[in-house]
Amino acid sequence: MNGFPAGLALGDTFTGFVADGPTQILLSALFMGATMSIIFMGVGKGIERVTRILMPTLLVILLLLLGSALTMDGAGEALSFIFTPHFAELTMEGWLEALGHAFFTLS
């Protein structure tokens, strides 16, 4: 029902995919070939044209993932956990670490 073969967990499916050497080599070669052909076409005809197509596609994929995540069980609890601050659990060490991250980002 979850889209995976019966009796296989997601981890088993991933492990099987990663362990399949010929498939990994083929997919890597296809990706490198596509990248080289885009770069070979140059900035205007290659990178800009592909970016004009792929960036909106990425936005659509992200919106579909967001919609899928919001319709899952427990989405309300997850949103509450993420966006509800718990200041009582924040220690001085946490404040200093956050300040350090902020200054590092600004520098």
Hey, roughly how much beta strand do the residues contain? under 5%
Terminal CA distance reads 50 Å
- The helical percent reads over 70%
Q: Pick out the low-confidence regions.
A: none
Give me the number of helical elements. Answer: 5
DSSP E strands, number:
0
**What is the element string, with H for helices and E for strands?**
HHHHH
Average of per-residue pLDDT values: 89
Which word captures the global form? extended
Broad structural category:
mainly alpha
The major β-sheet equals: none
Q: Write down the Rg.
A: 22 Å
Any overview of this molecule?
The chain is an all-alpha fold. Helices cover 78% and strands 0% of the residues. The protein is extended, with a radius of gyration of 22 Å.
Keywords:
single chain, 107 residues, mainly alpha, 5 helices, extended
SSE blueprint and pairings:
Elements: H1 10-19, H2 21-40, H3 42-70, H4 75-83, H5 92-106
Helix pairs in contact: 2-3
Summarize the structure.
This protein is mainly α and 107 residues long. 78% of the residues lie in helices and 0% in strands.
